[in-house]
């Protein structure tokens, strides 16, 4: 990426993270992605060559460090102190979007595999079952799809093919309905009550399922925004998300 040749902090920062996909790559690293394939999995639509190029650029700029993996070979990408400091920048971008640009999710914006992958990285370790638990997500809609989330305390995985273990819990949902819960637009009990989420399995697993996830890191801001609008939901028209002149911005929330 070419520099702007301006002695300006915003120009210097934009030269590092202003390219297309770069903020999302940083987001994936902040959320715990370390291996190339893990980062790639959270970014449907990016080519692997472009991802490699962007990671190399971030490495040259001192945002990312490539470290060798002691066991198994290969390497991982780790944020440097400068990279970790970008978390507040990425969070601020997301919170700004919630206040001014956010709208209801459209089917074309919700990839079931990516959504399940995001959920797998927002697990609350202390709330998980003691033994391995397999959750089968039956996504309905125009393109039905089954995806398995194998939950273990040390490491969980997302499988697009049967994982070879018995299913313990089945979640039947439309991808958009689950995204509305994940993003904070609606809450889990309401989605279950209206049929957006239908669970089958043991009563104990069904009862504890919603406690396993931290949901989206932006969900608290989404809920604040909805509360400020009287809880009427997120507008489908992006232009409707712009507050009136009398409406004050909400304080940052995490």
Comma- or semicolon-separated keywords:
11 helices, about 15% strand, 2 domains, alpha+beta, Nonspecific Lipid-transfer Protein, Chain A, 5-stranded mixed sheet, about 250 residues, Arc Repressor Mutant, subunit A
Question: What is the topological layout?
Answer:
Layout: H1 9-17, H2 22-30, H3 36-41, H4 48-60, E1 64-68, E2 75-79, H5 81-84, H6 87-100, H7 112-120, E3 133-139, E4 145-151, E5 157-159, E6 169-173, H8 175-183, H9 188-193, E7 197-201, H10 203-208, H11 219-228
Parallel strand pairs: 3-6
Antiparallel strand pairs: 1-2, 3-4, 4-5, 6-7
Task: Provide a descriptive summary of the structure in words.
The chain is of the alpha+beta class and 254 residues long. It has 2 domains: 77 residues, Arc Repressor Mutant, subunit A (Orthogonal Bundle); 105 residues, Nonspecific Lipid-transfer Protein, Chain A. Helix content is 37%, strand content 15%. It is built from 11 helices and 7 strands. The strands form 2 sheets. The protein has a 5-stranded mixed sheet. The longest helix has 14 residues. The chain is globular, with a radius of gyration of 20 Å. It starts with 8 loop residues before the first helix and ends in a 26-residue tail after the last helix.
